What we know:
- The protein is an alpha/beta fold.
- It has one domain: P-loop containing nucleotide triphosphate hydrolases (Rossmann fold, 3-Layer(aba) Sandwich).
- About 30% of the residues lie in helices and about 20% in strands.
- The protein contains 7 helices and 9 strands.
- The chain has helices at about 10-15, 40-45, 60-65, 80-95, 110-115, 135, 140-145, and strands at about 30, 30-35, 45-50, 70-75, 100-105, 120-125, 125-130, 150-155, 160-165.
- The strands form 4 sheets. Strands 3-4-5 form a 3-stranded parallel beta sheet, sandwiched between helices. The chain has a two-stranded antiparallel ribbon with strand order 1-2.
- The radius of gyration is 20 Å and the shape is globular.
- The termini are far apart.
Amino acid sequence: MVGPNACGKSTLLRALARLLRPSAGSVVLDGRDIHTYRAKEVARRLGLLPQSSVAPDGITVEALAQETDLLLLDEPTTFLDVAHQIELLELFRHLNVDRGRTLVAVLHDLNHACRYADHIVAMADGRVVAQGAPAEVVTAELVHDVFGLPAHVFADPVSGTPLVVPAGPPGRAFAPEAPRPDSPETATPEPAVV
Length: 194
């Protein structure tokens, strides 16, 4: 999940973890409303890494230490340097690809979300505004509409996933998609021979 501060990402994650009851609708886990399970049954099925260093009421170390099939991660890369962020995201990829675990993460770095997520949910003002594969969701228009940030979106030369490059400070006019760095439009002209 991506979106600006205070748009509802952590609140949605807390609802998915059964720490909040939705005001409308329901959270379904393994075909049942999550609130029909006892707390221990939920703890066997999902683990939560909260945003703060203080775990919410009702979450024990033993719930967190179990190898659950579903992990909910609220800004897991906060306070980590870039090398440790990548190391942690690679661990998450391993848990997903090699161990078959489902991970739902709130991330603030759009480029990390694009590179590591199979599915992105973009939120703004307490609602989902877009969701799908990173290449379908993360566009210059979305970055501008959701974050108010003019940006260019290129194909990442390493992963091929969207790479967001800010084009100026928030609130500036929208910047349309930029040509790829290797396109003829951005190629450096050959010097004239005299």
